[in-house]
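Posting for a labmate who doesn't have an account.
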Amino acid sequence: MTLPIQLKQKSSLKNLAVTGIGLVSLAFGSVAQDAQPIQFVHQVKPILESTCVSCHGPDKDKGGVVLHTKEDAIGDTIIEGLPNDSLTYTTTILPADDDDRMPPDGPMLTKEQTETLRLWIEQGAEWPEGVVLEQTRRILFTESVQPILEQNCLSCHQESKDKGGLRLDNKADAFAGGDNGEAIIPGFPEESSLYTLTILPEDHDDIMPPKGDPLTKEQTDTLKAWIEQGAPWPDGVTLAPKKKPELDIASAVKESGYLISEIYDIVVEETAAGMEPYKVRIPDSRVDFEMVPIPGGEFIMGSPESESNRKGDEGPQLNVKVDPFWMGKYEVTWDEYELFMYPDPRVRRGRKNGSLVLIGEPENSVDALARPTPPYVDMSFGMGRYGYPAISMTQHAALMYCKWLTAKTGHFYRLPTEAEWEYACRAGTTTAYHFGDDPADLDDYAWYYDNSDGQYQKVGRKKPNPWGLYDMHGNVMEWTLDQYVPDSYSLLAQGGGILRNPWVQPVTLYPRVARGGSWDDDPEGLRSSVRVGSNANWKQQDPQLPKSIWYLTDAQFLGFRLVRPARTPSPEEMEAYWTTGAYQE
């Protein structure tokens, strides 16, 4: 519990607060005696609570370091008057790629935040008696604050229109403030008009935004917490006005007890029209992945009886409607997947001749439980890692990667349903392959038995399908979310009409559906409609007892691809998607 603090007058608080601009000048040669006093409760406590206590608190003392109480912190990692001898400061200014850099997860502290820590320690590291720190959520500017400002503030506060003399499109101008003084006072949200004007009554003349569309409580709480944590704004990040996302009419209607499918369809179409391809860098890494927008629409799922090499489980054909989503431009690669497999970078770094060599174990037992245990063999089986598709993971492992990636990026990811996969693969075509019916053209689009040289190949080296997706045919087969039921199409067809977003949710561990064919398959196995059911033989050589929930040692042909639906699902839906890969028997 934190002790109450007696607030001073507004003018005094402004004088005591160190602004984002002021800290920059203080970083060059100033001494503590000349600097404004740093207030622990307002300026230091929020930084420590949001970036340190999760690993160095009452429930977790990583490295034997505890920072949530004065007794544990002062004199150990915080040396009064000596910031350069205090690990709480020195570890925050290490290079981004240093293994000892703190915090280890997420972006580095801004120079304003590290300078606040430095000055506080230099000034004697005053810590009021009885103040105990508690873990709080770290607010990341680009993920949480930037969208709020761009969608609600930039239309009136930018270079071309600086209403009230205030610009919020860049860091320097935002912290400089406008005609009415500073809008952002780090550590003091109650004195920052960027926050205080957003919590006025809706009928108040000064409420911001002023157009009768107030911020939600979640948004105002985010702004408050961000300012409390020092208003960290990464250098070089500039903002531009953005249109607000369309109102989720479907959810509003559903909550009101109605279901108007026509309105829902309009929202889906409008959402699809605004979707664009994007590239994301996985936090704490140098690894990017790309997502391609897939427009919602209708298609015929399955193959006609006239299709060469057709199998019985590919029909009868179904009329299916799919909502819009993004799909991975490429299959998930080892570059991406190893970040999940080996959370400790000391493990990932051990390589010899391009193959992984384990040189350490993850220190964090929670990570070891939440992620795959180190494998007992090289899971690439010598076929290559950098730029090559990750393989041989169970469906559970693939879904846990999606869950991990969601937590890392703030966007919801999962595996595609069988219907989504075929819809994306066909990309508006009705032929056996997305390029036509002639398997003689496969060499231009796919890696398969005749041209793969007996192994998978780097992603993206063949031609994409009409929607810009690579290796949908061949290279590695790809997991979907569905249970494999040989006659599921017949069962689904019994209801008649158009099926919307069908998903055969698993109830047993085997079999589950994989799609697309692989480097080890003949041309007929790569057709858009081919369905393959998993089986226990895919881990026959697994020496673990019980068999591993993470690895399929004998499925060197199997990987996966990401999907991000345009509509973010509810927490209950997320859990249903992610846990479908777990044991059900």
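Reply:
Got it, the structure tokens are right above this. The two ends are 46 Å apart (CA to CA).
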